[in-house]
Every structure is written in structure tokens, then in C-alpha cells.
């Protein structure tokens, strides 16, 4: 019941009660599917980078074609901070569910269109231009997905278990990568290189349309979060989340950006660039490199939930700092070892790197949801997360390939990851613990 003071509201009962298990399962499914589609697309593009370079760019040396393909991959991230602002503002002002339902539709449609683009042999460089435009649309629509799904789950999750429930989002990311890796590995094993370049590479992108429609259907069947419904009662239509975000929450933005930097570099180097690194730099067969990455991703999914639970018990700050310290100390030795072991050793090393990444990845989404209040949670999360990914995530495969070319050292990407880890640890030194506190509202 609203009092005479507009800002004073008796909160609806739904906000004070734990959501029933059936509803929580639906919320988890809705968050899982959309994020799955987004990173399935990014996985397929990254795993097929060498083929896409052959299809859309003039014949040249292998490294130059790879750099061109990864440059298009990176450029699609440039628009993500803008997309994060748009989707975040939309989600904080009109609703998380509405924003997520629209973003998944645009994302899956753009991914489907990837399969229809003519290559260099048909239209010359116009094919690369169209590819770039489609990637920009994908980047814009994807900018609202991870942050929105995380905020959606965090605002439904019971107190004391946010880390576990919100870890569904990074787990769905890994699941999308795993599905993309398995599909590309299967295609590589079943068809020839010529067939892959002619039509095989298009098949994975065609799957995005039905997956996206399923995700949208599930989301439309849910109500918006209790936290957002409370917000609607507290604030009128003049609510301006972006003004509030950049006026009152600049410190939180900087902390979120700094800790996300490690996630951005680590995620794209360890989970999407690694098959290309193994095959192009270490001369591992394409099939073996995808098998190694697929096994790693399978284990990664389970580790994510474990790390989310650990962050509920020991705190977000401790777990995130542990991730940074682990990467700083172990990355270079592990990359050196990659070049001296067989396939079993490679799998073991990838699993160790993945375990370090899950310390960060399984904790980050809940941490970013907790450092911003409800009024700007979507906006703050989306802008900081997408800005870090635009500058350091999408560019990671390109930078790694370029560093190897410039230095002549196959270990150069490892030092890049170490630098990101040091920045993340330094950032978390200024952060407060958030795991035991309720989600902030003011």
C-alpha cells in the first residue's frame, strides 16, 4: 500500500519470500538458453576462424588471414559498450524480462544470417563487409545478454545462494562453447577441408534461429523479478538509470571493469582461442585440439557451480583474488608445458587453466550483480562488463596472434594473461565483500 509520500512503499509480499523451486527452475532455464545461444555463436566463429579467413579474405599467408578473421571478431565487440548502455537502460527502466526477450531475438536472427553471407569468391571483399555488419548487430544484441541474465537470476535467487544460482549464467556460456566445439569437431572429422570451406562452416550458424526462438518463448512465460517490480512501485516514469549510474556509481564501474578484465582475457584465450593456438602454433591436429578443448569445457561446466558455491561460503573477494594470483603464478609455466606434452598432457594443462578461470568466472556474475543497486544493476553490470570485453576480450585472439608474430615467442599470450591477472588482483584490493549482504536497493 502506497503512503502519501511517493517514495515510501510497503513492499509486495513476493519480494520477501523465497521463490518456489518450480519458478527458480524456469528462471534458470530462461537465463541458461539465451546465454547459451550467444556464446555458441562466439565459439563457432572463433573455432572456425581459420576457415572464415579462407572464405572471406584474399589468399595470403596463414597468419594474415587469421588476423583478418580475428579482427572482424574483435570489431564486433567495439559496439558492446554502447549495446550495454542501451540494453542496461532499457532493462533498468522498462524491465529485465522485456530486454532479454528482445535481445535474444536479435542475436539469434543475426547469427542465422551469418550462414547466408556470400564469400570472397562470389562478391569479393563485400562479403567481409557484410560479415562485419552482421557481427556488429550480434555484438550490440549480445551486450545485454550476460548482464541481464545474471541480474535476473540474482534478483530471484534466495539469500546465501546467489553465487550458486547466478553461476548458471557462466555455466551456460561454457555449455554454448562446448556445443560449438563438439559440432565443429564433428564437422571437421566428417567432411573434407574443401567441403568445410564451401558449405560446412555455414551449418552451425543455421542452428541459432530455432534455439533463439525457444529461449524467447521461455522468457516470455516468466514475470519480471521481484526486485524490479518493487522498483516500479518506488519510482515514476522519470527514472533515469544512466544518469544515476555515471553520477553516483563511478567507483563501482571502475572496480567492475578491473576485475572483468581478467575474465575477458582469460575466457577468450583459454576457451575460444586455445584450439586455434594448438593447431596453428603447436601443430596439433585440428581434431585433437578440439577434443582437448571439448573435454576441458565439459569439466569447466561442473567446476563453475562448485566455484559459485565456494564464493557463497568464503566470499566473492577471496575467490576472485585467488583466481588472479593463480593466473599470475601459473600461466607462463603451463604455456611452456603445452609445447612439450602429448594430447593427454594438453588436456590436463587446459583443465588447470580452466579451473583457475572458473574461480573468476563462477564468482564474477554474482559479484557484479551485488555491487550495483537495483535501480542501475543492469546498466552498471552491462556497461562495465561489455567495456572490458570490448577492449580486452574480443581483441584477445587478435592480440595473442599479433604478439606471437611480433615477438616470435609462442609464450607471448601467457604474459598478456599474467598482466590481466595482476590488474584484477589490484582492483579487488579496493572492493568490499558482498556475498553475505542482501542485494542493495539504494
From TrEMBL:
Q: Does the keyword Ion transport apply?
A: no
Question: Can you give the residue ranges of the Major facilitator superfamily (MFS) profile domain?
Answer: 27-436
A GO term from the CC aspect: plasma membrane
Enumerate the UniProt keywords alphabetically. Cell membrane, Membrane, Symport, Transmembrane, Transmembrane helix, Transport
GO function terms (MF aspect): symporter activity
Q: Which Gene3D superfamilies match?
A: MFS general substrate transporter like domains
What Pfam families does the entry give? MFS_1, Sugar_tr
Checking SUPFAM superfamilies in the record gives: MFS general substrate transporter (SSF103473)
**Main localization, broad class:** membrane
Membrane-topology descriptor: Multi-pass membrane protein
Task: List residues traversing the bilayer.
Answer: 66-87, 99-117, 123-143, 164-187, 199-218, 252-270, 290-307, 319-337, 343-368, 380-402, 414-431
Tell me where it resides: Cell membrane
Record-stated family: Belongs to the major facilitator superfamily. Metabolite:H+ Symporter (MHS) family (TC 2.A.1.6) family.
- Describe the task this protein carries out: May be a proton symporter involved in the uptake of osmolytes such as proline and glycine betaine.
Task: Please give the name of this protein.
Answer: Putative proline/betaine transporter
Amino acid at each position: 500500500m502506497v503512503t502519501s509520500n511517493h517514495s515510501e512503499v510497503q513492499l509486495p509480499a513476493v519480494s520477501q519470500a523465497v521463490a518456489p523451486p518450480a519458478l527458480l527452475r524456469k528462471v534458470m532455464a530462461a537465463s541458461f538458453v539465451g546465454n547459451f545461444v550467444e556464446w555458441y555463436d562466439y565459439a563457432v566463429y572463433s573455432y572456425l576462424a581459420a576457415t572464415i579467413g579462407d572464405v572471406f579474405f584474399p589468399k595470403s599467408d596463414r597468419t594474415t588471414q587469421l588476423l583478418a578473421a580475428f579482427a572482424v571478431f574483435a570489431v564486433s565487440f567495439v559496439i558492446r559498450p554502447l549495446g550495454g548502455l542501451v540494453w542496461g537502460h532499457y532493462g533498468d527502466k522498462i524491465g529485465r524480462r522485456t530486454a532479454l526477450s528482445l535481445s535474444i531475438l536479435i542475436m539469434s536472427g543475426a547469427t542465422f544470417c551469418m550462414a547466408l553471407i556470400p564469400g570472397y569468391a562470389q562478391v569479393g571483399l563485400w562479403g567481409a563487409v557484410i560479415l562485419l555488419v552482421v557481427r556488429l548487430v550480434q555484438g550490440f544484441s549480445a551486450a545485454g545478454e550476460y548482464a541481464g541474465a545474471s541480474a535476473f537470476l540474482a534478483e530471484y535467487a534466495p539469500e546465501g545462494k546467489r553465487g550458486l544460482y547466478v553461476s548458471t549464467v557462466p555455466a551456460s556460456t561454457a555449455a554454448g562453447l562446448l556445443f560449438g566445439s563438439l559440432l565443429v569437431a564433428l564437422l571437421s572429422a566428417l567432411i573434407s577441408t574443401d567441403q568445410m570451406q564451401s558449405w560446412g562452416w555455414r551449418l552451425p550458424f543455421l542452428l541459432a534461429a530455432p534455439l533463439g526462438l525457444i529461449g524467447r518463448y521461455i522468457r516470455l512465460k516468466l514475470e519480471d523479478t521481484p526486485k524490479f517490480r518493487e522498483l516500479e512501485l518506488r519510482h515514476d516514469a522519470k527514472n533515469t538509470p544512466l544518469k544515476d549510474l555515471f553520477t553516483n556509481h563511478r567507483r563501482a564501474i571502475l572496480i567492475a571493469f578491473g576485475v572483468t578484465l581478467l575474465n575477458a582475457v582469460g575466457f577468450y584465450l583459454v576457451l575460444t582461442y586455445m584450439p586455434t593456438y594448438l593447431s596453428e602454433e603447436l601443430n596439433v591436429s585440428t581434431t585433437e585440439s578440439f577434443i582437448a578443448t571439448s573435454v576441458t569445457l565439459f569439466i569447466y561446466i561442473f567446476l563453475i557451480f562448485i566455484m559459485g558455491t565456494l564464493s557463497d561460503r568464503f566470499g566473492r573477494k577471496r575467490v576472485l583474488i585467488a583466481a588472479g594470483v593463480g593466473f599470475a603464478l601459473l600461466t607462463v609455466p603451463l604455456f611452456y608445458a603445452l609445447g612439450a606434452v602429448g594430447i593427454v598432457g594438453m588436456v590436463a594443462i587446459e583443465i588447470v587453466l580452466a579451473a583457475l578461470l572458473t574461480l573468476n568466472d563462477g564468482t564474477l556474475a554474482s559479484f557484479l550483480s551485488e555491487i550495483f543497486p537495483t535501480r542501475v544493476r543492469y546498466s552498471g553490470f552491462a556497461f562495465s562488463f561489455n567495456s572490458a570485453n570490448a577492449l580486452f576480450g574480443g581483441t584477445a585472439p587478435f592480440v595473442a596472434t599479433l604478439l606471437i608474430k611480433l615477438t616470435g615467442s609462442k609464450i607471448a599470450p601467457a604474459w598478456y594473461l599474467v598482466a590481466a591477472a595482476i590488474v584484477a588482483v589490484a582492483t579487488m584490493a579496493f572492493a568490499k565483500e558482498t556475498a553475505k549482504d542482501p542485494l542493495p536497493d539504494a
